[in-house]
Every structure is written in C-alpha cells, then in structure tokens.
Amino acid sequence: METRELRYYVAVAEELHFGRAAERLGIAQPPLSRAIQRLERRLGVTLLERSSRAVSLTEAGRVLLAEGRAALEAVEAADRRTRRAGAGFVLAAKAGASGEFLAKLLDAYAAEPGAVEVEVLLCGIAEQERLLRDGRADVALLHLPFDSIVGLDTEELRTETQVVVLPGGHPLSTRPSLTLAEVTALPGLPMPRWPGPGGVYPPGPGPEVHNHTQLLQLISLGRAAALLPESCRAQLGHDLVAVPVSDAPTVTTVIAWPPQSRSRAVAGLVRAATRL
Amino acid sequence: METRELRYYVAVAEELHFGRAAERLGIAQPPLSRAIQRLERRLGVTLLERSSRAVSLTEAGRVLLAEGRAALEAVEAADRRTRRAGAGFVLAAKAGASGEFLAKLLDAYAAEPGAVEVEVLLCGIAEQERLLRDGRADVALLHLPFDSIVGLDTEELRTETQVVVLPGGHPLSTRPSLTLAEVTALPGLPMPRWPGPGGVYPPGPGPEVHNHTQLLQLISLGRAAALLPESCRAQLGHDLVAVPVSDAPTVTTVIAWPPQSRSRAVAGLVRAATRL
DNA sequence: CCCGACGATACCCGCCGGGTATCGCCGGCC
DNA sequence: GGCCGGCGATACCCGGCGGGTATCGTCGGG
C-alpha cells in the first residue's frame, strides 16, 4: 500500500464524496475512482458502498480510515523529523503553562555538553499529542491527569497541588482554602470546558476555552472560575486571586516523547529535566 | 514520501550496501541508487555517506531509519487489519502463559452479544509488542513488569504472586517458602535469561530461553530454575515443584491494544476481560 | 418524465520505476 | 606500480501507471 493511495482513501472516506475529495486532493475525479478501485482490488475487500446518490463506509472501510490516518501521521513524522535532523529539535508546551519551569528546563539543558538548539512550540491545550505523533514536535511537557500519554514514553518531573482562580472581588476570594464541592458549585461562575483527547469538547455548561490567556481573561470578566496548578500564580494579574483547594487531585508535569525516537538530543533534554 | 521509497531506504540503511539491499528487495542496483538519491533530494538532506568502499549513515539517516521503520510498521498494520476486517480479530498471548485464564476470557467473550471469531496467536516472549505494532495482532495479553506497554492502551486484569519452579528432587523443593536472595543464588541452577524489549538477551550466565516449554524442560533437566507467576502451577508436570517466593514482585496481567484501533470487537473483548 | 448530480468507463499522454550496459573510483595484491 | 575487482553512479531504453478530458449509466427529485 503506497502512501498516495492512503491519502486518497482517507480523503474520500472523510468527504464521503469522490468529487469533493478529488478537489481537496487537487486531482480530477476519474483517477481518484480508479485508485480506490485498485486499492480495494489489491486488499481484497470493499471499502466503500456506492449508490448513485451517496457513499458510505463498510466495516473494512472504517478500519482503514482509522489505521490509515495513524499510518499517514507516522510517515509525515518520519518526513518532518528527518528534514530537521541535526538542526535541533522541537519542544511542545501549552502556552501559559509551566512558564518558569520551562525556562529553568531550557537553561539546564543549554548547560549540558552537546546541547543543540531547542525550538519551543507553544500550543493550545490537547494539541501536544498530535504534534508528537505527526512529527511537528519531538518532545512535550504534559500534565497528568489531563493529557493522555497513551503511545508515549514519559518521565515524571514534578507534582503540584491545585488552586482555584477567582475574580478579585469574589466573596470566596478571601478564604484561606476551599473544597472541591464548594468550587464546582460556584453560583454564576461555571467551570470552563477544555478540549479532551482528540480536541473535542465535553458537553455541559461553561464556556469552551483552548488556551490560558483566553481563560484568564474570562475569569477577569467574572464569567468563569478555574481549577489550575498552583504554579499558575506567577502569571496572575492583580485582578485575579488564587485560593488553595484542599481536596483537588494533584497535577503531575511529565516530559514525553514518541518511543521510537530515542534521539541523542531528546535523551539529553530528558536527562536535564529529571535532574531539576 | 512513498512507502516504496521508505522500504528501499530502510533496506539500504540496514545492509549498508546497495547491492545486497537491491537483492533483498528483488530489484537491480541502479534503480535503488536513483531512488535513494531522489529521496535525499526531496528531503533536502543527505542520508548516507558513500565512499567507494563503504556506506554509512548520517545523523539524518539514523533518524529516518528509526522513524521509517515505525512508519512502515504502521502502514503494514493498516494493510493487515483492513484485510481481516469483519473476519474476527487476533489475540496474541505468550505460549504457555495464562492458559486457564485465557480459556475463561475467550468463553466470557463468546457469550457477549455480537461476539466475532477470535484467532489466538501463541507467540514467544516479548514478541507481542511487535505483533500489535505491525498489525498481525489486534489485542494482546501482557505481563507487567516484564513486558513494555509503551505505545499501547491497557486495562489491568489480575495480579498474582510469583513462585520459583525447581526440579523435583531439589533440596529446597520441600520448603514452604523461599526468599529472593535464596532463589537468585541457587548453586548450579542459574536463572535463565529472557529476551528484553526488542528481542535482545541481556548478558550474563544462564541459558537463553524464548518460550515456556523450553524453559520447563530445562528445569526438568536440572539445568535451570525460574521465577514464574503462581498460575503456572497448572502446567507443571510431576517432576517439577513450585515454591512461593515471599518477597518477589507481583505480576500483573494486562490486556493491551494499539490506541487508534478502537474497533467494536476489541472493545467487546476488553469489556468481557474486565468483568472476569 | 426529464434533468441533474455523481460515480464509472474509455481513451490518451507523459513521467517514472525498472531493466541492461558501462563508467569512475579506489583499495588491495602480485 | 600497475592491474584487478568490488561498488556506487550514470546512460539509455521500455512499459506501465498516474493523471487528464470526454462521456456514459443510474438514480432521485422537481
């Protein structure tokens, strides 16, 4: 199976329409039809059910869509990582999270013998897994239990407690400590929803957020409150207050990388990180 | 990057010899040289250092070898899993391990509504990870802490203590219990060596084994002793004795599957397994 | 009942993957 | 030191496959 065939199939399976898929791929429709037919013939299974009005996936088609996407990501990762081989590597971190910690980590690594250039890729929440899988990043800082580490090698770096961030004048903002029960039931201050694995938002009340700036601004505006690791205190303006939450689960920062890419450079960064 | 190019490159990078690589690929040498040149040109990096006597990998070449192997495995997995879509799935288990447990699991799954055919692939030790990665298996029974679960989704099934298996007449075979210290220092009965992740054997004394039959026979012959999960008792002949080891680490059986293949069938098996 | 949307088919062209023959380079051996 | 042999690169040729345009066959809907 060639990657071109996979790309073609994934396009058709996503669009469920040969014409649109061909347009997306920048080719005409007939060669696309032929390519899919040949793919089906070679695999010995039917992938798509075509009526003259609609296209739908068979069971085999669903399997190939999932597996094919993963395979294409692996190929893209090989491509990107090879292109930048030797020219340093890319570290993905959530914009706004672990700011100080990240600075210390980069300093520590820079002091290592043989350190190469590190490009820091600040991304939204829940994007890191995909960045690592498709090769746009080589190593990432993740936070348990929020991020999924399935499919990655990891090393734990530090664990911290959580605080609730409230607008300055809020009645509870002067309390020395709160409980989860008090925090989740705040009248008029819903907890925002973060994207889960795959980038989909869970249903429920509360605004959808995808980065920290956005979140902090919503809190300033008095439209949300949020549970965050205590290290976020360093970034809070004077109009926000952090109150410890005694029974909130702890957050663990981990450094993660794809298991097959044991490059010298990434190993050095991991070593520097675990020594912090 | 097309998979054919990746296959070609991996062959050359492994052989470090264009002629032999071409032979292995079943093509002539000139087209192979051209393909690698074109790959290097398109990637914009040199992968191989050629002198007229030897071929060696550059840093980029090492990266592409590792990433390319992973990508090829993902493509092969997509191929195999698509071909057998709908026709059941494959469960990989170590030959000789978890015998009874496996039988119960298969029975429980067969009773599920919508159960499909399960092919059981009995393999050697440390082969399962690769079987899952390249698509020859869809789901596997692994044993912590021996097997690596990096890159897999898992669910814990049961935890058991370990026993030491000794030849029948051995002086220690009548003891009610032993300690790790006593077991590792058995005179004349070395612990065998198992392949670690990647199928390589750690250095040291003791015979190399890669399946349970072989191991049990070695013990019968009085040439080895082994630490095994207590459930192995069911398979011991009368010439072998199992003695509990009080301070040995416990073994956890887990069911594992590649994260992207959340097929209905595998989900059913996992559900049946966790209910056991 | 006809139209229009959509996938399949027919047919053509140019490039690329593969083959054979040969070159150029270099290390080793007589 | 010159010849040989091993090895990758180059030159050149062919066939098939990827891609394009034109058109057909089949439905569902107005």
Q: Mean pLDDT of chain A, rounded to whole units? A: 86
> CATH-wise, what's the superfamily of the largest domain in chain A?
Periplasmic binding protein-like II
Order of helices and strands of chain A: HHHEEHEHEHEEEHHEEEH
Please give the share of residues in helix of chain A: 25-40%
Any idea what the CATH architecture of the largest domain in chain A is?
Answer: 3-Layer(aba) Sandwich
Q: Biggest β-sheet of chain A, characterized?
A: 5 strands, mixed
Query: In percent terms, what proportion of residues of chain A is strand?
Result: 15-25%
Oligomer: homodimer
CATH class of the largest domain in chain A: Alpha Beta
- Helix tally of chain A equals 9
Q: Which word captures the global form of chain A?
A: globular
Class per helix and strand makeup of chain A: alpha+beta
| Structural domain tally of chain A | 3
Strand order of the largest sheet of chain A: 4-3-5-10-6
* Biggest protein-protein contact in the assembly: A-B, 43 and 43 residues
Report the strand count of chain A.
10
Describe what is shown at a glance:
With 276 residues, chain A is of the alpha+beta class. Chain A has helices at 3-15, 18-25, 29-43, 59-83, 99-110, 128-133, 180-184, 212-220, 264-274, and strands at 48-50, 55-57, 89-94, 118-123, 139-144, 153-160, 162-167, 226-229, 240-244, 251-257. At the A-B interface, α1 and α4 of A face α1 and α4 of B.
